[in-house]
Amino acid sequence: MKRARLIYNRTAGKELTIKLLPRILDRLESHGLETSCHATRCPGDAEEAAKEAVHRGFDVVIAAGGDGTVHEVVNGLKPNQDLPRLGILPCGTSNDLARALQIPKDILRACDVIGEGHVRPLDVGKVQNRLFVNVAAAGWMTEVTYQAPSRLKTILGQLAYYAKGLEKLSTLLRPFKIRMVTPERIIEEDIFLFLVANSSSIGGFDNLVSNASVSDGKLDILVIRKTSLPHLIQMVGTVLRGEPLIDDRIIQFQTEKLWAYSDEKMKLNLDGEWGGDFSGHFEMIPGHVQVFCPLK
């Protein structure tokens, strides 16, 4: 029987994992996974728990929470050569990576996906010696993701981000200057938003970066140039309708390596969590971990 370690965020989403924990463990056990669990206690705890799981030789590590929990777990796996396989139970607010991997929203069905054993390679981004699984971002608009209190996210879900965004509307529209250097081009612009994507699902929206794939070995860059408020609202409407974001105020391309800098001190957002100051070298690590997902 294989051994699995379930690392779960007690406050993720609407505290769904706590409510379903006995059934989750039963379902995983029914698939031949001898499962123990660890409840996170503070920021960074999931990362330490993942390191401990590798040290103890678990075959599978399961992240139950949102993208932030997956982010911490994958960073806990990074120093090791022989990595356990990664399972994801989408219990968070957005669950962007799980949605990109087509992992079911139903938590028990997501357990079945892990038990069925089909895996695919998952690329992982790297910046400033930190890994990210779905997106790295900078810009005043991104700060609402880690400023929305966890309790508010538990109660309101995705609405917590919109509530925080309305509170900070006057500062969200401040542009900043960026310099991007790739092997193919150099770009200098005043922009509102900078994204490095690993999938097409970002911030609860599908097809925001339509060509992005979690297993193509590429960084997908999306930048929104400085523009007027009506133009920005029009672009947001396009995203909300699920239509491709094609606009002359958008810069979008793929690359293998990127150096990005700003004269203004900006915060870096990694998978919805604070990732230090924005600057430096971005790259993709192809197939860094094997992740369970449905068989297409």
TrEMBL record:
Gene Ontology CC: plasma membrane
Keyword Zinc: no
Molecular function per GO: ATP binding; ATP-dependent diacylglycerol kinase activity; metal ion binding
Domain DAGKc: 1-131
GO biological process: phospholipid biosynthetic process
Gene3D superfamilies cross-referenced by the UniProt entry: 2.60.200.40, Probable inorganic polyphosphate/atp-NAD kinase, domain 1
UniProt-listed InterPro entries: ATP-NAD_kinase_N, Diacylglycerol/lipid_kinase, Diacylglycerol_kinase_cat_dom, Lipid_Phosphate_FormReg, NAD/diacylglycerol_kinase_sf, YegS/DAGK_C
UniProt xrefs under PANTHER family: LIPID KINASE YEGS, SPHINGOSINE KINASE
Signal peptide residues on this chain, from the entry's feature table: none
Family: Belongs to the diacylglycerol/lipid kinase family.
Protein name (Swiss-Prot/TrEMBL): YegS/Rv2252/BmrU family lipid kinase
Protein transport listed as a keyword: no
SMART domains registered for this protein in UniProt: DAGKc
NCBIfam families (alphabetical): YegS/Rv2252/BmrU family lipid kinase
Cofactor(s), names only, from the UniProt record: Mg(2+)
Keywords: ATP-binding, Kinase, Lipid biosynthesis, Lipid metabolism, Magnesium, Metal-binding, Nucleotide-binding, Phospholipid biosynthesis, Phospholipid metabolism, Transferase
